[in-house]
Fold each of these.
Amino acid sequence: MPQFSLVLEGSEHRSELAAEGPRIDPALSDAPANDATSSGAPHDAELLDAYSEAVVGVVERVGPAVVSIGRSSRRGPAGAGSGVVFTPDGYVLTNAHVAAGAHQLELGFTDGSTCAAHLVGVDHATDLAVVRATGSILSHAAFGRSAALRVGQVVVAIGNPLGFSSTVSAGVVSALGRTMRARDGHAMEGIIQSDVALNPGNSGGPLVDSRGRVIGINTAIILGAQGISFSVPIDTATWVIGELLTTGHVRRGWLGIAGQNRPIPRDLARKLGIGHSSGVEVTGFDARGPAATSGLRAGDLVVEIDDKPVASVDDIHRALTRLKWPLTAALGLRVVRGAQVIDVAVTPAEAIHP
């Protein structure tokens, strides 16, 4: 299993630049010198191919909306990341691991100005957070649709890796629909894999398509790998933003059960008409949860929720995430108890937020 690393710059990082740039020996170059005075200076557009024009256009449109986010603890600086302004009144989208738990947040803009920011809300299950700037904002970025992405599509990452502000890297979408584990154990689904270069400090910065629309939020790399970067899709972020701006947190259902994945014997699955090979065994209850007073029992094997198959704990998390609040009906759980199928109704409570 690869080891994922969040791309948050640590406060202990230091960088040194060489005093001199690379030297080029003219004798090694066969290209004639460009005489701009005799031939006439060509227009910039003539020097850029279509790929370069697309990347430059993206940077010009989105770059001013990308901010650095410096975080401080009570003891001093505690790392840095990136973010993208998405409204004219100063709301900024970033990663949860960039903004959560900071004593103070400071935003840095491409023009060199800075301002304080405060945390609006955080969702660890998707590694997303929204902060709001206290000063005036001149530029903001537009969102696209990650559902329309295709493998091979050109994408651009903008951020502040290792303290180098407004750094741009370009690449392509390598794969779609990847799954990662969030810090709280939830499965982060629909993750975008690309080959753009990400480094510590890129966390929370935008992944942008060739039309200058944000289609992802950069979040992680694989330690030791090159050209493998991961971003949370903007369609997920749009839903999370709505929840955070409305309530300050993302509402998810809570049953109050402990469970583990367990295979279903093939002959039993065939006898009971179950079309998948595993379910979730209930191993315990939280006395505060709604399941404790329902008809569920320890040892029950959950195989369906509201007529949708349950093959793993992730399926239960998924069902509890897509609920519409306020709830108007109980969830229908189908469980295997012994050699029988039992239907149990449970009305989830809203998950407790720390």
Amino acid sequence: MKKIDQLIHLINKYQTIIIFGHVNCDGDCFSSQIAMYEFIKNNFSNKEVYIVGSGVRKMFPLFYKPHIINDDKFKGSLAIALDFNEDYRCEDNRLFNCEEIAVIDHHNKGKKTIKNASFCYINNSLSSCALALYILFKQNKNINMSPTLINALYYGIVSDTNRFMYLEKDAKSLTFAKKLIKLGANFEKIYQNIALSNFNSFNIKSYIYSHYKVQGKIIYCFIDKNFIASLNYDGYIGSFVNVLANLEGFDAWALFIENNDNTLTCEFRSQDKPIIPVAIKFGGGGHDFACGIQKIPYEKDIISSIIKEMVKVLS
């Protein structure tokens, strides 16, 4: 049985389906949630479908907001977890109140991969969860692809490839993005939304440019909690890691973000050599060249220890 048919069979068993994303929701995660919502709404009759989590605020005018639902909705429902496969990465812990869980992702399997998932499709060769969904949907020619679903898939692919800078070895993202444009994806509005910025974003970039440090061929920046508190910013600071990208003479770049609970959130990127061994050693995960640590205790010398490990891994 094809993977899509397994998923359809699972969805058919439930009246209520709740779609989950990961902490620090990004464009690929939220657009994947929207795409799955549209898929179910347009291909199944009389289903209650909800998106939970924070979403991405600037995407709301282009699509819509997540739903706010009571706890009693989760009991006896199907959960669909998108763009993550480890339990601690889930933004809404009510995931584990659901009857069954389906997981669709494109990250490397971690040590805390969700156990006993009734459906699991993880393909870490893909650049985005949106692409994983599109590949699934294309397995069944009878699936109704609404304009919103098409736009959401395109948004996720463009967002997580950083506008096609980071592709698979066979450049699947380009191939499937072309198909979505032919289906009517509004690429102009999507690009405008992805590029949309505000004055807080400008201040964050300015801070990074003013406070970066260099060690060998690694450039990095520590962003302290007092600066973050001075902003009226509800997005994910770690998404600014690529402000330090593509500088001549550097093999890797990183952000270290201080949290209010005496922890650090870390984002790592590299040019040619995989940097994920660093993330894994310190309890994180992700992709070979783009990974991070959700939270690690902010102890003395932890940043220098991580940087030393980066140097070691890249040498």
Amino acid sequence: MMSFCTGVIKSTSPARVHRGILEAGGRTAGFLERQKMGRYMLKRAGQALVVLVLVSIFAYLLTYMIPGDPVYAMLGGDITKEQYDIAYQAMHLDQPIYIRYVRWLGDFVRGNWGKSYRYSQTVTSLLRARLPVTMYLGVWSIIVSTLIGIILGVLCGTHRGQFLDSLLITCANFGAVMPPFWLAVLGMYIFALKLGILPTHGFVLPTENLGESIRTTVLPLIALSVGSIGGTTRQMRSGMLDVIRQDYIRTARSKGLTERSITWKHAFRNAVLPVVTLTGMCFRNIVAGAISIEQIFAIGGMGSLMINAILSKDVAVVQACIMLTAIVVTLSNLLVDIAYGVIDPRIRVE
């Protein structure tokens, strides 16, 4: 028995023991990293939930602060006292506001978002028809502005002080301060009224007519994206200029690596971190800019629906639009935070 145990011990080489210890340590480190990432995601999700609850309170109270009586806004001014009382009770306006809020929040979570008094349709059916239009423009605007902004920012950072850098950063500064509605009117005047190559109004989804969809998307997409392209370009340029001064970049150059390899394999990953955060902010600005863009181009999206609902005091539609916008923006910010934590592990520790 002793000889068998001695043989087993002798057969286990120090290298194999060392490898086993390293593998166990690697599994433990991986588990700890996943645990940190899980806590980080739960923390961000909890913060997002708190934001949505606060926005829901604000949305519910704000709609009742709009001047005018919601009953008269729904039925008009030519109603009897009995009709007014019936509608007043049907809208639960005779109950305390906190009870109305809890009832409304419960219905919202269950998907019962009420009925539009102006359109005589359920709010969900209205948003189902209009939300894809706004989301289509918004998502494409983020993709275009992020890709173009990153490329231009890298070019500026790698050509600092040269003519290309001066030209691109001047254009970026000019585009960043241009209001989307001004760009929309300018683009409509040049490409639609003068040149006649693009339509002045309307929108068609690609599933209906691809060619017409491209023509109706160009001007709204340009108006929504130019400002974000300018902001992303400036942020990416600043990140590149900061990173290329670091010691590890000089070490990479001393090893004889090409500038392309240094730029995209070593400098890009660290320089792009602020752009990831900026993407979430761009999405919020694009959602806000869609309101004016949809009005100018007569696009039947969620932005124009919200404006018409506010003007007609269509309370259910206003509340649903505010909450849906808050949900979309909060989720985009949550995804950006998670992406930031994946790219930079130091964020998870902090």
Amino acid sequence: MELRNEPNVRQELGLAKIVIVSAIISAILGTIFFFAGNFLPSSKTFADGGGTVFTSKKTGNWTATSTWTETGSGIPVKYIILSGHTVTVNSSRDDIDTIKVYGTLKFNNGKDLTLDGNAGVVEVMSGGVITGGNTSSEIIFDDEYEIAGPFSIAGPVHATGESDGFSAGPLPVTWLSFDSEVEENFVTLNWKTASEENNSHFIIEKAPSTGAFKAIGRVEGNGNSQEIQTYAYKDKESISSSTYYRLKQFDFDGKFNYSKTIFVKSDKEEMAEKVLFPSLVNFGQTSQLNISNVPAGQYQIMVIDVKGNIITQFDHTQMELGMLEITNLATEGFARGMHYIRLNTQSTAETFKLMIK
């Protein structure tokens, strides 16, 4: 009887050894992944806030699909160049929201990268560099300004659509997302950050479709953090018409940056009307005009006088439904009186009145 039972005992001992070895291997792998997750930049860190993330997986050209690992979907669109990788801008590209450089971003002569003018961010981390290019190579913040080559930029530095060139140090706050929820005409704002440095607080600002922004609340920041932070703020006043919100982020030293601006439609509105504001500007003044409720798409924008002459025109890419911003519109060469802003697509045309006094 004992001899007949011996094979079963040996099998059980063998299984026990396998379980023990598997546990040891799992523990070792868990430790490796723990350190990798804490010390290496991860695409998941940035993808958690939504949108599409392209993370370099080797040295290569920007346009080569083999250069990138793609995660997520939709907007914003973010590119991460990891340490040890060199990504070469071999063709001009646009529709970019964020570029984060741990390795090397190299420009070929005459090639551009165009980012969203409102929410665009280029952040060069410690150890990262931007090189190459010539005077015709540019980093463009759409409708805002351009940074021309040749490039020789070493991190940590950053540039945004709100700044004018690169600033020393990392970006105080790396935005992941900013959106809203509407329930019974009360708005809750939600936002996430991927990292924070010296972040004191956020001021919540609100504007009607035809008015200026005003502060309505404050949310404290988390100071210094390399983890995803989640925030929320509920507007105490109900909305009955189209409303805009943005966040003004303050450092402890008083410096500030803006988030992107988001558009919120009231539950009572079946179809949001496009509105130009302000519709009255002073002659000789450089102004920013806004057109509310503009869907995502490609647009041609014209400024036309009362005789039908086109004073100026330009193209604009709208990344998402919301406010279309016409920045730095200089009126020195315009006549006083009525003008028209025309918003054209391939199939539609809409016109808005603009008075220059």
